[in-house]
Amino acid sequence: MLLCHGKTDAWIPIEESLAVWRRAARDAELTVARLAGCDHAPTLGEREDLDGVSPQYERVLLDWLDRTLPPPG
Fold it and tell me: What is the DSSP string of 7-37?
């Protein structure tokens, strides 16, 4: 399971959220990313469009997918 948290998220404190996820996930593997410059959404500067998506979020997501999904074919 991939969890992405904005480092400056004022809505949900990261450590409290992670504690809940760890209890709920039980034996599931958790990957946690803390996104610099992001609040609650994975965007920079509080933008709400695709151009505002954090490049770090994109890298984290693609890396996680590469490690998690089986190879094609």
Answer: TT-SSS-HHHHHHHHHHHHTTS--EEEEETT
